[in-house]
């Protein structure tokens, strides 16, 4: 499942993001106002969608999201209708990597929770001792655990652009104080639950990005519900707990192999140029695939058989 979005009988392709392809029913659907979300094997880095896919990645993202949706169901509702294949479910051609979901009006904010300092949060902290306007203690370093998890929202950027970290006050000015407080509290509640679950399985959840929306119809119409994917290696930083050592970048269960190779002399790519990144070597693809599968195995306790 790579490259262009596949044609699916009964469904009309409407949008493709970095990884996911979105479809709407070609005729009214028995489940109501729904969309089909298909996770491809595309992989992105440094705001580029790479020409080389990672086989099975879309299946890992979907299956892990399904596992988390079930685990979080008592905290808040989600947009999933079904992931089962069938005439009123997911087309057989994309079974395993697709979800039938409620169509929603999305909250225009990337809702990020951080329990550890790294990435763009570390850059902000080093510049001014705070992240998204939240002051942090002195002396923190790359990989430091924060005194408590913080809500560090970001604007949603267009494809190829960077998300921008913003303050809670700016979120409130954009979506209203009540909704800003609601998505903050929900984001931190999800992070707290997931961090405890992951830690019990030997995995540190350093940070995660969530998205929320309001379904057009169904039992949760108008309510804030969890959307998109959730707590996958694409939207979260997962670190092996037994290797955690603040003071430098941590080993992670994500596409770090891809980032490292692209910025190494071996790739020959100038990140500052307008040139697209080169194709990935087989070894980088294989090692990245192994990390995604290992994250799934450690978190769920199950192995995932993907082609």
Helix content: 25-40%
| SSE string | EEEEEHEEEEHEEEEHHEEEHH
The rounded distance between the terminal residues' Cα atoms is 11 Å
Instruction: Identify low-pLDDT runs.
Output: none
The third-level CATH topology of the largest domain is D-amino Acid Aminotransferase, Chain A, domain 1
Could you tell me the strand content as a percent range? 15-25%
Helix/strand-derived category reads alpha+beta
- Looking at the overall shape, the CATH architecture of the largest domain is 2-Layer Sandwich
Task: Kindly provide the radius of gyration, computed on alpha-carbon positions and rounded to a whole number of angstroms.
Answer: 19 Å
- Tell me the name of the CATH homologous superfamily of the largest domain: ATP-grasp fold, B domain
Number of domains: 2
Using the coordinates above, name the CATH class of the largest domain: Alpha Beta
Shape: globular
Keywords:
single chain; 307 residues; alpha+beta; Phosphorylase Kinase, domain 1; D-amino Acid Aminotransferase, Chain A, domain 1; 5-stranded antiparallel beta sheet; 6 helices
Topology (elements, then pairings):
Layout lengths: L10 E6 L3 E6 L8 E6 L4 E2 L2 E2 L7 H16 L7 E3 L15 E5 L1 E3 L2 E8 L2 H10 L1 E2 L2 E2 L9 E7 L2 E2 L12 H8 L1 H23 L3 E13 L9 E3 L8 E5 L15 H7 L19 H19 L7
Antiparallel strand pairs: 1-2, 2-3, 3-7, 4-5, 6-7, 8-14, 9-12, 9-13, 9-14, 10-11, 14-15, 14-16
């Amino acid at each position: 499942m790579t490259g262009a979005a596949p044609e699916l009988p009964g469904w009309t392709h409407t949008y493709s993001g970095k990884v996911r392809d979105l479809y709407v029913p070609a005729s009214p659907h028995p489940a109501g106002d729904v969309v089909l979300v298909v996770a491809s094997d595309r992989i992105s880095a440094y705001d580029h969608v790479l020409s080389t896919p990672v086989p099975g990645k879309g299946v890992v993202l979907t299956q892990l999201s399904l596992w988390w949706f079930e685990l979080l169901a008592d905290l808040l509702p989600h947009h999933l209708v079904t992931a089962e294949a069938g005439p009123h479910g997911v087309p057989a051609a994309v079974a395993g990597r697709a979800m039938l979901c409620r169509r929603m009006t999305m909250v225009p904010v990337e809702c990020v929770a951080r329990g550890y300092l790294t990435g763009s949060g570390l850059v902000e902290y080093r510049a001014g001792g705070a992240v998204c306007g939240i002051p942090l203690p002195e002396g923190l370093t790359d990989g430091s655990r924060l005194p408590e998890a913080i809500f560090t929202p970001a604007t949603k950027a267009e494809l190829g652009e960077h998300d921008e970290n913003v303050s809670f006050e700016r979120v409130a000015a954009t979506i209203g104080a009540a909704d800003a407080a609601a998505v903050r509290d929900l984001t931190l509640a999800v992070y707290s639950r997931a961090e405890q679950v992951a830690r019990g399985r030997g995995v540190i959840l350093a940070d995660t990005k969530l998205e929320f929306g309001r379904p057009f119809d169904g039992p949760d119409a108008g309510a804030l519900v969890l959307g998109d994917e959730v707590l996958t290696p694409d939207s979260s930083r997962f670190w092996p707990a037994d290797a955690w050592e603040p003071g430098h970048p941590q080993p992670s269960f994500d596409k770090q192999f891809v980032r490292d190779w692209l910025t190494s002399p071996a790739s020959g790519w100038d990140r500052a140029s307008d040139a697209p990144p080169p194709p990935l070597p087989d070894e980088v693809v294989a090692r990245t695939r192994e990390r995604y599968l290992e994250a799934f195995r450690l978190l769920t306790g199950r192995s995932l058989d993907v082609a």
